[in-house]
Design a protein that fits this description.
This protein has about 110 residues and is of the alpha+beta class. It is about 35% helix and about 10% strand. The chain has a three-stranded antiparallel sheet. A hairpin with a 2-residue loop joins β2 and β3. α2 crosses α4. The longest helix is centred in the middle third of the chain and has 13 residues. It is globular, with a radius of gyration of 16 Å. The model has no long low-confidence stretch (mean pLDDT about 90).
Length: about 110
């Protein structure tokens, strides 16, 4: 039996695309890519998704990302970036971040 699709409680405020658009692949949560990540690592990943272009590229500086994420110490951002890169979720080169297509399955830690 098919269930009826839930209706939005505020139909007057249904989101629409204005300008650029980003998305979080459902597999990130459903297939456990988030497992073992810290709060800062998950937030960095989500912010990079939100500010990246259609190629997944973000030009936000580390200073701006630290401000947005309320990170006080640079090693926290560096550690989060390194962990996301080690898990093949992002890459970082010459001050440019890229959110990558999710790999076939999450690495287990």
């Amino acid at each position: 039996m098919l269930k009826k699709r839930p209706q939005p409680p505020r139909p007057d405020r249904v989101r629409s695309i204005h300008g650029t658009f980003s998305w979080i692949d459902h597999r990130f949560l459903r297939q456990g890519f988030d497992q073992g990540l810290t709060r800062v690592e998950i937030l960095l990943y989500f912010v990079l998704i939100a500010v990246s272009n259609s190629d997944g590229v973000s030009f936000y500086s580390d200073e701006r990302l630290a401000e947005v994420l309320e990170i006080r110490y640079s090693h926290e951002l560096t550690g989060a970036r390194d962990e996301l890169a080690a898990r093949d979720l992002i890459t970082f080169k010459d001050g440019v971040y890229q959110v990558l297509e999710l790999p076939p399955g999450p690495q287990r830690y």
